[in-house]
Amino acid sequence: MKSAFSGYAALVMSTALTIGCDGTDPSVETVELSKTSSPLSYSGIYQYSDWSGNVVMSIFQCSWVNSTTPLEKVGAQCPVGAGYVLVGGGAQVAGPWDENPSLNPGALLTMSESGDDFKTWYAEAKESQYQNPNGFRVRAYAIGMKLKRANGTYLTEDEMKSQMWVDHSPYPHDRVAHPSRLYQMNESSQYRTGDVLLGGGAHTVFYGDGNFLTQSLPWQGGWYAEAKDHLVSDPAFFSVKVIAIRPCPATWGYCLQSSVFANDSLMFMDSGTRLSVRNIAASNWATSSIGGLNAYRGAGRMMTNLIPTMSDGGGSTFWTKDHGVADTGLQSSFLIAVARQ
Questions:
Q1: What does each C-alpha distance from 255 to 144, 153, 166, 258 come to in angstroms?
Q2: How far is the C-alpha of 215 from the C-alpha of 196, rounded, in Å?
Q3: Euclidean distance between the first and final Cα of the chain, in Å?
Q4: Which of 87, 60, 57, 92 is CA-nearest to residue 74?
Q5: pLDDT tens by residue, 89-107
Q6: Of 135, 138, 129, residue with least CA distance to 230
Q7: Residues near 244 by Cβ (< 8 Å), separated by ≥ 6?
Q8: Could you tell me how far CA 206 lies from the centroid of its own chain?
Q9: Nearest Cα to 130, choosing from 104, 157, 167?
Q10: Which of 117, 82, 84 is CA-nearest to residue 241?
């Protein structure tokens, strides 16, 4: 097997090799240019809560952004609604003739992560080698959280933001063809003992054909992600982001807990575009962020979709595909869910 790992245990081994090799950031301008705007209108909203009703989540589905030229990079964004703070999100790629990603041969994800304002989620994809004859489109999803007090009032956005933090791993000194990174909460200067992990994401900064996400998931008190160039060399800078909150937010009156859920076992993925799904039952936990594990066997399987499930207590729908060269692998959908203690 040529991927970085072949299962849950090997993930720990692969991530241990990446920590401690970080350095200065590439230019901020380069990163920001990749965050292309999309129309800020919602095509769907779904609300759910934990067992207590004091932790309220909403998934916001934003409009599609269409490609305009061959082999281009297309970005989309999605903000949470008023009164919410961002805790997670997702990204979806499709052909304009059908939303089924199995009909999308060319566009692969290069970004699915939050901004630093606790409001907006960013998605980005790029065609590589094999173009969609009619173009492709991208859209972003945002997962927002509200905290309700015992008297029925909600913490304001500013009250919640004052109890939260978002941070990203430093960029490596040099560009890497197959980057990987585990960024744990306790590596951040903003971390305090007991902080609760809410979400995370990752992006690549590339300069040629593309460097594409292969997996992105919660792991060991932080967020782990991998990416790769494919068929054409294009080493990239790479960064992983985490979102966290103090365990007992001021003026809420309660404390928060989070837990990571995944498929009960790794699922075999044949060549082609394949998916795995992990959902949360309603009225127990409430999904705050989503991810997926992908252990490919050969040339590579890349991410095409990471979509929050708009039913019950939320969930994760994770799509990967091989590209130009047939490849199989193992896959699992991951999510973080939160609840009042």
A1: 18, 16, 19, 11
A2: 22
A3: 42
A4: 92
A5: 999 998 644 444 444 457 8
A6: 129
A7: 164, 165, 166, 185, 190, 191, 195, 196, 197, 198
A8: 18
A9: 104
A10: 117
Which of 130-139, 149-158, 285-294, 332-341 is predicted with the least confidence, judged by mean pLDDT? 130-139
Q: What ranges do the domains of the chain cover?
A: 8-340
Burial class (CB within 10 angstroms; exposed 0-12, middle 13-18, buried 19+) of 125: buried
Look at the pTM and tell me if it is higher than 0.85. Answer: yes
pLDDT, one tens digit per residue, over 161-207 is 999 999 999 988 889 999 999 999 999 999 999 999 999 999 999 99
Mapped onto helix, strand or coil, the DSSP state of residue 270 is coil
Which token pair is 322? 């091989």
Contact between residue 267 and residue 205 where contact means Cβ atoms under 8 Å apart: no
Residue 9 phi/psi, 5° resolution?
-65, -40
In sequence order, the β-bridge partners of residue 124 are 75, 111
Tokens of 171: 């960029």
3-state secondary structure of 108: strand
CA–CA distances in Å: residue 280 to residues 40, 52, 330, 331, 336: 28, 15, 22, 18, 10
Neighbours of 126 (CB within 10 A): 26
Structure tokens at 261: 């859920």
Contact criterion met (CB below 8 Å) for 277 and 310? no
Q: What is the mean pLDDT of residues 127-136?
A: 78
Q: Largest Cα–Cα distance of the chain, in whole Å?
A: 58
Place 22 in a pLDDT band, splitting at 50, 70 and 90. very low
Please report, as a single letter, which amino acid is at residue 9. A
**Residue at token pair 């160039």:** 229
Q: Quickly list H helices, the chain.
A: 8-16, 28-33, 157-161
Length of the chain: 341
Q: Which helix (H) or strand (E) holds 56?
A: strand 55-62
At 136, is the pLDDT very low, low, confident or very high (cuts 50, 70, 90)?
confident
Among 33, 35, 47, 31, smallest CA distance to 312 is for 47
Contact 292, 202 (CB under 8 A): no
Pairing of strands 137-147, 120-127: unpaired
CB 293 within 8 A of CB 219: no
